[in-house]
Amino acid sequence: MGKYFGTDGFRGEANVKLTVEHAYKVGRFLGWYFGREHKANIVIGKDTRRSSYMFEYSLVAGLTASGADAYLLHVTTTPSVSYVVRTEEFDCGIMISASHNPFYDNGIKIINGSGHKMEASVEEMIEKYIDGEIEEIPFATREQIGRTVDYVAGRNRYIGYLISIATRSFKKYRIGLDCANGSSSAIAKSVFDALGAKTFVISNEPDGTNINTNCGSTHIEQLQKLVKEKKLDIGFAFDGDADRCIAVDENGEVVDGDKILYVCGKYLKENGKLNNNTVVTTIMSNLGLYKAFDAAGIKYEKTAVGDKYVYENMMKNGHCLGGEQSGHIIFSKHATTGDGILTSLMVMEVVTEKKMSLGTMAAEVQIYPQLLKNVRVADKKEARENEAVVAAVNSVAEALGDEGRILVRESGTEPVIRVMVEAASEELCEKYVDQVIDVMTRQGLVVQ
Length: 448
Fold this sequence. Notes:
Helix content is 39%, strand content 21%. The chain is of the alpha/beta class. The two termini are 25 Å apart.
């Protein structure tokens, strides 16, 4: 974790924590860094937030002032930027988005030439440049000044790629799509329409301030209502930049990232396509998922929270499927990042090939009740390592045994300790979470 860049880029309230000056300097540095031996070519995408246009122009000014050419995909998804970078040999890509955050936040995600999240070493240099710890970068002059190129064709190629992945027509299916008034508004419906589905779309009228507002993957109730009222076969909800997907089955029940991993993992195993018979998860995945994997004979690995860490594990060990409970799912055969629309297509492949409803397949995972509480503390490390707290956590873990678990971890972006318990009942979750928080409070670690 850097001063400005976290696990998912530089993110914060627009012109408060993340300003136009920051964006300009990010552009200045990247244009210079990738242009030292040749003219840099950098592609930019953005979501539908009002401030995304402001940051786009600031980045372009910085890039072109350093001599780079800036290619604009306009409103598009994070995974589309990753796809264009890795298939069309750009030096790097930039996505302007704060993902599932409210509209007044924004972020800058930097993607390297391989379509992965940028190396921490480069982000560290950007931070030093922002803080004036690196000498000033020279301006390009005359014919060396960069140009701006309209590159909507790149986004269209990505749409074509998604359509090409589908193995079957969806013409028999009635499908709901919740686009979160975000990036997928410009893409998702056209993909499903091209594949023959009868689509019912909500939250696809962005106005700059309604992205993620009571819609999308973080407010799934709107899609549940649509699926039940219209008697749809299935529904998919995306977040602001469409790198995550949460599904709703034919009964209006939520199918989260854990259940999607199970449904797709079991299907790949049955077809001999689950590399190493292993699915990569994070430590936040539900205990019920692991019990379902055990019953299906599927192995699994756990990483720190963040699809960045999931992908690193997949690449290191040759695994082909991984993801998070939140809906970031990575299919390494097709993509290098979480891709919400791609995930929805992969789920539809399972549904069409097996001729089974999503609800039937997902029912094999019995999700354990889970409770997460955030505790604001003065010092995260001190709070987590306090002897009394450690003893309380160990006591809960012993009491839960194989029928639950406790997880205590530091937030990567806030002065917060997250206490999470999974158990057989909501009452037990509440009891054990509060038990640990009470110890933190008595130890004087909690900030009111």
